Amino acid sequence: MEPIYWNSMNERFRDDKGYVLYPQIGDRLDLICPPLDTVRSTPEYEFYKLYLVSSRDQADRCEVTGTPNIVLTCDEPTRERRFTIKFQEFSPNLWGHEFKSMHDYYIIATSDGTRQGLDSMRGGVCATQGMKVVLKVGQSGSGNNTQSRGTLEDGGNGPLQPSNIALIAGAAGGSAFLLLVTAVICVVCYRRRHAKHSDTHHPPLSLSSLTSPKRGGAGALSSSNNNGSEPSDIIIPLRTSDSAYCPHYEKVSGDYGHPVYIVQEMPPQSPANIYYKV
Q1: H-run or E-run covering 18
Q2: Is 1 exposed, middle or buried (0-12, 13-18, 19+ CB in 10 A)?
Q3: pTM for the whole thing?
Q4: Which stretch of 30-39, 95-104, 257-266 has the lowest confidence by average pLDDT?
Q5: Is the Cβ–Cβ distance between 74 and 83 less than 8 Å?
Q6: pLDDT tens string 163-191
Q7: Do residues 59 and 74 lie in contact, with contact meaning Cβ atoms separated by under 8 Å?
Q8: What region, left, alpha or beta, does residue 160 occupy, with left being phi > 0 and alpha being psi -120 to 50 degrees?
Q9: Distance CA 238, CA 84 (A)
Q10: Cis before residue 271, ω within 30 degrees of 0?
Q11: Within 13 Å of residue 29, how many CA atoms lie on the same side as its CB?
């Protein structure tokens, strides 16, 4: 927003109601104490303390009550003093100012401009010269270009400029693109997860139960060539890792006779599952 130079030369303070502004959440406003020997300075330096109050009664009576909230002190004639107000609902700074939309706030100066009256908290130029600012946060007002944000010059709530239209169109297009990308990612993840789940939905097989020997009678024992057990026709699928191939060695049986192992020594081909008959 246009900065406010705080001294009696500022014609914005000629109105008895004060200098009315319509800041929106996110705006910034600079309060400046101009030093001597500058274009906006007065012949003699003016000393002020600026207070931020939220009570209209205090602003109308030009009186600061309770704990004063000083935003700026003009007391260095050779140096520019500046304070920036950011209109935000939540401040990360413990001592930062917070503003609510659709609320009014006031900045008043109750000193008379002299060094001796710097600490006065009643009357002063607020009462005699209307040196106070009315901040109508989050509101829209009608008035001239210096008081209302609803103009092309201030970039407020008036007709949209071509640059603003392009900015809004770009933001809408970017949002649509992000939504499309998010939807595609969700579909791909769902399909991969569903495919992985379909590959592993069978209950795990117990090698010990699959390779249990078949016990028979005496005839079976006489015809067996594996210490009382018979060969079992078992097909065991071996699944490899999705990321890398690693040779797989797994002991199948050793309780009856010599141990039997399943050995996978070469990468799987298509299909992904390789079956061995034991």
Answers
A1: none
A2: middle
A3: 0.51
A4: 257-266
A5: no
A6: 456 667 677 777 778 888 788 888 777 77
A7: no
A8: beta
A9: 70
A10: yes
A11: 24
